Amino acid sequence: MQIGLYLHPRYKMISESLPEIVNFLIEKDQTVILPDTACDYFQAGSQSVKYLPIGEIPEHVDAMFSVGGDGSFLGASRLMAKTGKPVLGIHLGGLGFLAAVSMQNYRERLNAFLDGDYTIEERSVLNAEISFSDRTETAFAFNDFVIDKGHVLRMVKIRTYVDGGYFNTYRSDGLIIATPTGSTAYSLSAGGPIISPHLNVIVITPICPHSLSARPVILSDKQEIRISCTEMKNDVSLVVDGQNRLPLKNAKSVTIHKADFFLKIVRFKGDTFYEALRSKMNWGLDVRRN
To answer: Which of 240, 195, 242 has its CA nearest to residue 220?
Structure first.
């Protein structure tokens, strides 16, 4: 099997973990493909390790492992999005909702993966189309799209439509449109609900709205959301999964709907969304004496 590794961009943060993971995979007779940007930083000294430009790795691998946090996992997922190949996250710290493997259990879980003892969980993806007078730009998100006001000091006016009908005009610091996977990310911080990834929904969460009645709203993922950009300030942008920023200057609208493909996440026996909630959020623990 050929396994690609998508690495945290700050290589020093993975300097101890990466050699362990690579050597383990070599011991298991796997071929490891690393981004060529890591060539000067990490030399494995084995013919089982190859280096390729990051954009060429997906076509040469059977699976992609991300090494880092949820941000690295999202980057790996974006790279592999339309290949249909699985993504496995090796988590090195922080909250880490998406990664199923840690440095404490990586030997056990990578053995299970190589033995085929895992399942694939499909997560919904959002697609956005940004319309300009002369072109249309597209993007997709696994967690969320955010209408971000950037350096604008005042609230922005976000006129929103659902299935072609007028829905609401949010006067707020921004607007989050999230998948169930993204419901535990920025949307949660802004007061949005936690949503099971098995539900076919999209959540709209306003950021600091100037209205007590502007609450998060859950829609069917069969519905289409359109946001008018004509009344927005020039510095407003569309942020994709907290990683990419797409300026909305001169844009007419942003249309968001469910994509026609899924994110495929590796899951192991005993892994559940609810177990992740309990462990990551310390539910069930009495912290009042802390």
So the answer is: 195
pLDDT in tens, 169-219: 999 999 999 999 999 999 999 999 999 999 999 999 999 999 999 999 999
Tell me which residue has tokens 């922005």.
156
Residue 152 identity (one-letter amino acid): V
In which domain, by residue range, is 108 found? Answer: 2-123+262-281
Residue at 26 is within a domain: yes
CA atoms within 13 A on the CB side of 282: 6
Residue 95 pLDDT grade (very low, low, confident, very high; cuts 50, 70, 90): low
74 and 195 fall within a common domain: no
Whether 286 maps to a domain, the answer reads no
Residue 253 and residue 157 share a domain: yes
- On the CB side of 220, how many CA atoms lie within 13 Å of its CA? 3
Length of the chain: 290
Query: How many structural domains are present in the chain?
Result: 2
Active site positions, annotated: 70
What CATH number is associated with residue 181? 2.60.200.30
d(C-alpha 176, C-alpha 145), whole Å? 6
Residue 109, both tokens? 């879980």
Percent of the chain with pLDDT over 70: 96
Q: How far apart are CA 18 and CA 184, in angstroms?
A: 28
